[in-house]
Amino acid sequence: MNLSLVSNYLTSSDPSLQKETEIFVTQAFNYFETLRSDVNGWKICVETLLNCGQQLSESAVFFCLHVIENYLKTNYELDDESNRNVFRQFVFSWFSVNEVNSIYILNKFAYIVNTLFLFDFPSQRWNTFFQDFLAVCQNQRNCDLFLRILLQINADVADREIPRTPKKTYEHSENERNNLIKDKMRETCLLDVAHFWFNVIVSSKYNETTYRDSSPPLVCLCLNVIGAYVAWIDISLVTNESVMSDLFKLFEKIEYRCAVCECFTNILHKGMDPQSKAQLIEQFMAVDSVKAKFISVSNNSDCEDEEEREFTVKLSRLFNTAGLELVECYKKVKPKQSIEESPNSLLSFIHNAIECKFNILCQLLSHKNHIASFQVHSFAREFIQWLKNTKPDKVCVEDAKTQEFVVIISKSKFPLDYDFNVEEESEFEECRKSSKILFENLMCLNSMTCFNFLCYNVIEEIFRDWRSGKYTFADIEVALYFLYLLGENMNVIPDQKRCENLLQVMITSSISSYPHQCVHLMYFDIILRYEKFISHSLNFLVPQILISFLDERGFKNSSLKVRSRVSQVFNKFVKSHIKSKGSDKLHGFAEDIMKRLQDFLKLDITEEPSEGMTNGNVKPVNIFDDVHYYIRDEDQLLIYETVSVLIVCNHNFDIPKKGFLMRNLLFEPIWEKFESVFAKVSSLVATNDLSNCDNKINEERSVQIRNYCKSLSHYISLIARTSKGFSNVQTVKSINAQIIYLESFNRFVKCLTLNVNEDSLFAMQSAIRQLLHRLIVCLDETDILPLLPVAIENIFLTRLSFNAKNIQELVPLINQIVSKFKHSWMFQRDLMPFLKQMFLPLISSIFNLTADLNLGNDERQALHKSYYSFLCVLASNNILEVFTSLGKFNVLEKVLMSVVQGAVEFPDVTTQKSCFLVLKKIIDLQDSAPQLKSENGSSFKENQFLVEFMYKTVIPACFYAQLRQQDENQMTNECINCLRSIQQIRGNEEFCSYIQLQLLPQHFPNFSRSADLLHALVNNDNKLLKNTFKTFIQQFKKHELI
C-alpha cells in the first residue's frame, strides 16, 4: 500500500490546501476507488493495519477502515465463509493490538464491529461475540473500545429516537431483526455484560487500582452505556443493591456526578412496580451527598461556572423525572388503596414522598439558570394536578399554591441583563412561556387564591405607586403581563368586576408612559385583550385610550417595533369597538383621529430609512421641525384600512360625506402619486431602451425602476386594503363608491404595459390581482362581471406567458369568480365564453410546466394542487361545458388521466378527494348530457373512449387509491360514490360482470371473497358496501395480495 499517498486522505476539508496538495488528495481518492473496486482491496488494508502498527498516520488508518467498511456493507454477506473468517479474525485481532488514541477512529472501528455484529450474531455465525470480546477486556483501552461498540449496538437495535423502516434486511425486517438480537442477548450474554459494567464502575479484577481512580472518562462512558441499555434489559441487573450503592457513591465526586444523573434518570424511566420505583427514588434522595447537593444548588443559584451550570441542569432533569415517576406510581396505587384506611400503606408512603419534594421543586423553579428552572416545569404541572386530585389539608394547599405562585411571578420577570435587541427566542422567553402554563394550571386549581394574590401583592400596588421609583422596569412589566394573562383566563376569574377596576386603574395611572418599549407593547395588547370590557362598561375611558394610541406612546413612539404593533392593535381595536353598542365616542372622535393619522397616510412615509434616521425616525434639524416617523408598507396598509373603517361605519357621517372623505382623503392622493411615479418609470424605461450608457449608470437606473415599481405596487395595495372597511351591511354601493374603485382599477392596469423586468412586472401584477379579488368580493355583479374578461386578459395574458407563478395567481381568481357568480345570467353571457376560450391554453401550459425537468418538486406539487383545485371548482359548481368544449377527445383523455393520477398518487388527501369529485361529475355528465357530441359525432354517453376510461381506469383507481391510504376511512366515501355512479350509468349487470370477470382476475387475482363484494354492489345499502369495501382493503393490506 502506498502509505504516503493515503496519508493525504483526510486533508480534503482543509481550506488552506494548495494546488500541489489538492493533486495528492485527488490521487488518494482515486486510490480509494481502486481498492474499493478491487476484490482483494480490503485484504490489503487489513494486512496494512495489522502489520504496520504505529507507523500509520491517523489519515492512513481511517483510509484503511473506510475501504474495509465498504467491503463489509457491500460484499461481506455475499462472500464465502473463508473470507468472512478472515474478516472476523482481523476485527478481533485489531481490537486487541491497536494503539490508536483518536476518538474519531475508535468510533469508526466500533461502527464497523457493530455492522459485523448485525450480520453475524442473529445468523448464529458468531454466537460467542460477547464472550470473545469480554475475555480480552483486560485493560483500559480495550474496555473503552468495547463500551463504544456496545453503544453502537444499542443505537442500532434499541434506540427509539432512530426511525425504523419496514424494509427487509435479508430474512428479517429491521424490527424483527432487532427483537431477535435483543432476545438472544437477554438469553446468552447480558448477565456477563452487566458484570463487566459493574467491574468497570466499582473495581477491576485485573488491576490493583480501580478505573474509578485511574480513568474517570471510562467510568462515565460505562454509565452512559448502562443508561442506554437499561430501557430494554432486565432491571434487576442494574437496580440491585451492589450496583445502586456504588452508583450513589460515585455521585460524591465532581467528575462523575453528571454521568450519574443521566444514568439514574434513564433508570427511572424504566418500567418497575410502584413500590420498587418509589423506594429507589427515596433511597437516592436520602443519600447525604445528594441532599447536600440540592441544598447547595439552591443556595448558589447565581454560580457562573460552566461545569456547575451543566450539572445543575442535569440534576434538575433528574429531579423532574423522579417527581413525575412518583406521581405515576401514585396514580397506579390509588385505585387499590386509601390513605384514610391505611395510613402506613404504600399509597401513604408515595404521598409523603411527593409532598416532601415541594420545597426542592420551588427552589429549582426559582433558580436563576433558566434552563435548570425549565427542566422541572413538567413536574410542577403534575404536582398542581396532584394537589387538585388528592385533596390534602386545605391550609397546606393554600401555602403550596402561594409559594409556587411567587416563584412563577419571579421567573416571569425580565432579567437585568436581558438583550431586547436579539430577535431569536431566548432561554428566558422559553421559560416564561412554560411559566404561563403553570400559572393557568394554578388558576384552574383555585382561581380565587391566585386572583386575590395577584391583585393585592402585584398589580394594584404597582399600578398605584409606579411613579415612586421603588419599582423596576421588570416589576412594572410583570404586573402588566399578569393583567394580560388574567384576560386570557377570564372564564375562571371569580370577580370580573374587579378586573374592570384593574383595567381602569391601569389606564388612569398613566403607567403606559413608562419609558420602555416592552411596557408600551404590553399596554396596547392589554387594551385589545379587554376591548369587550371597554365597549360595555368602561366606555368613558375611550378618549384616554385613543390619545394613548395617537401620541408618543403609540403611533409617534420612538420605536419602529412599537409603531408597527400599534398599527395592528389599533386596527383590530377600531374594527371591534366600532361595531359595539358603546361606540358613540369613537364615532365622535373619528375626524380628530383621521386628522392625527394624516401624516401616516402620506405616501412617502414608507420610504426606507436613510443615514439620517435613528430607530426609523429622521432627526429634525432644529426643535421647530417635525419628526418624520417611518413605518413599514404593511403598517400603512393597516392604517388605510382603519381610516376606511372609521369613514364607512361612522353613523355621524352622511353618504355624501363618506364618499367625499373616501375620494379626497384616500383615493385622490394615491391616484396623483401613482400618475407621477408612472410617468417617471415610463421616462426611465424609455431612456434605458435608447441610451448606450455604461453599466454603472444602467444599474442605477434599474434600481430606480425597481423601486418605482415597488411603490406602484404599494399604491395599488393601499386601494385594495381600503375595501376591507366595507361589510355586508355597509356595502360599496351604499355610499356610491363603486365608481372610484372601478376608476382606480382602470388607472392602475396600465402599469402592466411597462417594459420592465419580469420580477417587477410580477409584483405589480400581484397587486392588481389582489385589487381585483377585493372588487369581486365588494362589488355587485352588474359592476364587476362585464369588466372581468378584459381585466383577466390584461393582467395575465398581455405581457406574461403562462408560468408557474402567474398560474397559481390566476387559478384562485377564477375559482373565486366561479364560486360567487355561477348562478348569474351575466356570468353565462360574459364569462362562460371566456372560460371556454382560455381553458385549453391554460391546461396545456400546466401540462408543459409540470413536464419541465427544471421545475423543483415543491413547485411542481404546488402547480398540480392549483390545477386540481381549478378542475374541482369547475366540476363542483357544474361548470362542465368547459370540459365538453375541448372538442378533441385526446385532450379530454389527457385531462381525465391526469385527474386519475391525482386521485391515486397525489400525497395530499384533500386534493385526492377533489380529484374523485371531478371524476364523479364527469361520469354523471354522460348520463345528464347525452345530447353533447364528440368530434366524430357520437354522443358523449356512448363515446367508446369514455366507456373504456370508466372501466379500465376509474374503477381500478377507486381500489388503488384506497389501498394507498393508511387510514381505511379517509377515501372510502369518495371511492364508493364513483363506483355507484358508474354502476347507475352502465347498468347493474354490465358493471358487476366487469368486476367479476375482468377487474378482480386482472388486478387482484388472489382475492377469494369476490361474492361478498358483488353482493354489496348489487345491494342498494351503501353502509353494507362501505363495510365490505373496507374489509376488502384491510385483507389486501394484511396479506399483501396486490
In short:
Helices cover 70% and strands 1% of the residues.
Structure overview:
This protein has 1042 residues and is mainly α. 70% of the residues lie in helices and 1% in strands. The protein has a three-stranded antiparallel β-sheet with strand order 3-4-5, with no helix packed on it. Strands 1-2 form a two-stranded antiparallel ribbon. The model is unreliable at 166-171, 204-208, 610-614, 618-625 and 930-936 (pLDDT under 50). Belongs to the exportin family. Residues 104-264 form the Exportin-1/Importin-beta-like domain. Its main location: cytoplasm.
- How many beta-strand runs? 5
Which radius of gyration do the C-alpha atoms yield? 38 Å
Oligomeric assembly: single chain
Largest sheet: 3 strands, antiparallel
Which strands sit side by side, in order, in the main sheet?
A: 3-4-5
> How many alpha or pi helices?
51
Mean pLDDT comes to 84
Which overall shape is indicated by the principal axes computed on the Cα atoms?
globular
**Percent range for helical residues?**
over 70%
Percent strand equals under 5%
N/C terminus separation: 52 Å
Regions with pLDDT < 50 over 5+ consecutive residues? 166-171, 204-208, 610-614, 618-625, 930-936
The computed structural class is: mainly alpha
Protein name: Exportin-T
Keywords: Cytoplasm, Nucleus, RNA-binding, Transport, tRNA-binding
Function: tRNA nucleus export receptor which facilitates tRNA translocation across the nuclear pore complex.
Organism: Leptotrombidium deliense
